[in-house]
Design brief:
The structure is a single chain. Strands 3-8-9-4 form a four-stranded antiparallel β-sheet, sandwiched between helices. It has a three-stranded antiparallel β-sheet with strand order 5-7-6, with no helix packed on it. A two-stranded antiparallel sheet has the order 1-2. The protein has two domains: about 180 residues, no CATH class; about 220 residues, no CATH class. It is an alpha+beta fold and about 450 residues long. The protein binds zinc ion (2 copies).
Amino acid sequence: MTAFRRYASRLVGDRIEALPGQSPFGYVARLARLNLLSSGDFHGVLGLRVHRSVNLLEHLVLSRRCQEALAEALNFEIPKTWNPIAWHPFTGGMPTIGLEVFRYCIGCIRVGYHCGLHQMPWLSSCPWHGVRLRHGCPRCGGVIAVSGDAGRKLLTCVCGFDLLNETATARLNAAPANAEKAVSAYLNWAEPLRRNRWLAGPPDTPITHEAAAALIQPPKFFAAATDPPDRISIHRRQYRQAPPRQALLDDAQLLGGLSGDFPKLLELPAFLIKGTQAVARDVAAKLPAGSLTEREQLLFLGTPEADLSSFEAADRSSSGTIGYLPPLLVGPRRFLELSSIHPIVIRMIAKLQTAPCFARATGTDHVQANSMRLRVEGGLLCRGYAEGIRTVLSRYVPSLYTMKRDRPRLTAAWCLIETESPYTVWTAFTPINRQEAASDTLIQARPYRR
Ligand SMILES: [Zn+2]
Ligand SMILES: [Zn+2]
């Protein structure tokens, strides 16, 4: 028997099954608080070899080795819910979803109960208490301790506020009413959805809390625990299944040109020519008077013979950079210069092209699935293109930043794809230039253009 197993037999509150869906962090925090363990005791008593500065909320979910050490030390079987994927109603998501900040129910955490459900961004309230999930200290908004650093007890704030009530925690003899039922109903709902829903986002980019909340509609029996869609302030778009178009697929291989490193030029497939032209015209139409020269305006309109009698031209010479923004005509072919489009958009489109949920479809399903994929890719390209044009133009027309809806901004897209007929794709967009001007973000993302 190891040294810590001797301790373990004396630990208060070590029954893993007492609290359904208890997160590994909740389990450790509760044990630590009930048994007055400091981070220095974690190895000797709990078998955990972790530096005290480690974020235990995230680390205990991601490190199978730590989970195994803990299970061995305290002699229990690792619950299925300690695999973060068990909470996902889709495939393809990163295991870190929802872990960027500690979220809790004030009623549950009082007795050291932190359910894995409480971290899921698509839930806004505790399903059994009905109270809003929170993050940060209720008194001062400070950060709640989820590591053994700085000598603070787990679940306390630097102001002294303690989320956990030690007496109530020690007295706990059952999980809150309905918690067990709700957790198992949720897990039974999520499990089959992992077979026909796929979450896709730009490579190596964690999904934001807002995007995840916007994309995932929890089960109907959890309706009260979620924010209604109109409360979520994020742009969303839904693509429904439309009659498949073989013609779409025939010229779509041109989009394969987006899969290299920093592709510079894209030959537009026929189905994107009208859309991109419309984007350029629409941007030009909304620019303040005096933004473009006559030559630039004609390029944006795409018709050299357009009437410019009421057009107010910019008081500067034409710019080569602006001239390359509209689709370029070379004989009958059209090209798009890609340096105006943020690489995160291009990488997302490239990712959809190889997404298994589309690639594995066969027969008529193949045409259906890939028609849908191309419509989404086209939508993402046109949106990224519109954002990019406005961003590049903002260097010449700073007043664009005073526009409301059409101010320069850059967004990244995440898609939730229903991979069985009828195919449906929900897309959510989140800003990527939160701190700085969009044009700076775009320049930094394209180092070779500097
Ligand atoms: Zn609760
Ligand atoms: Zn505080």
